[in-house]
Design brief:
212 residues; mainly alpha; 9 helices; 0% strand; Tet_transcr_reg_TetR-rel_C_sf
Length: 212
């Protein structure tokens, strides 16, 4: 398996690794990863196949770089929202689980908008290679941490307790991920507006009923 974090190779004039990666992601989305060859990529860029290898070692490395771009910032946001300092009985203080969950969902919208092509590709991964399996494992970790945060917000009494936390976490991320189906980068609706809309619709419906 090629390490996606491998140092970038020296590129040819007029192209760099990011330009190659952007075109590769577009092709992977349009044609499918398995159906896209390095020859396809070379033709799309107007380069020879040998020139592509001045930028990356393999097609698998390109996939790894793309999936890491989709997952890295979201992973950081989840880690911040579920840090051990917030665990019950740890003596930590700060935002409630409900507040951290709401911020995390908004942040996930911002990450999706910033990396929409890569997230679109991530959502089509089926585990057909070691790189894809690793990405799916990271997605499962994110799902589990989000469910834990939902559970903590329920225990605080901030969220309704009649829906399973695991189901809530899947529905929340399902709402966020559905943006790739219609949102257009650079369109009229920006990330801040989307984040506000998603969190308002989701959390006002999830809020625990007021007693009485």
């Amino acid at each position: 398996m090629v390490d996606p974090a491998a140092p970038a190779r020296r590129g040819r004039p007029g192209h760099d690794q990011q330009a190659v990666l952007r075109e590769a992601v577009a092709l992977f989305i349009r044609q499918g990863y398995d159906a896209t060859s390095m020859g396809d990529l070379a033709r799309a860029l107007g380069l020879s196949k040998s020139a592509i290898y001045h930028h990356v070692a393999s097609k698998e490395q390109l996939l790894g770089l793309a999936l890491d771009a989709a997952l890295a910032e979201l992973t950081e946001a989840v880690e911040a929202a579920t840090a051990p300092a917030y665990d019950a009985g740890s003596g930590g203080s700060g935002p409630s689980a409900y507040e951290r969950l709401r911020v995390l969902v908004a942040r996930s919208v911002e990450v999706l908008v910033a990396h929409q092509p890569e997230v679109t590709l991530l959502l089509r991964v089926r585990g057909n290679s070691p790189v894809e399996l690793a990405a799916l494992e990271r997605r499962r970790w994110i799902d589990a941490r989000l469910a834990d945060l939902v559970r903590a917000a329920v225990e605080e009494g901030a969220l309704r307790d009649d829906v399973d936390p695991q189901l809530v976490s899947r529905l929340l991320f399902g709402m966020v991920n559905s943006l790739v189906e219609w949102h257009r980068p650079g369109g009229e609706v920006d990330a801040a507006v989307l984040a506000h809309a998603v969190t308002t619709l989701a959390f006002e419906g999830l809020r625990a009923p007021t007693p009485g």
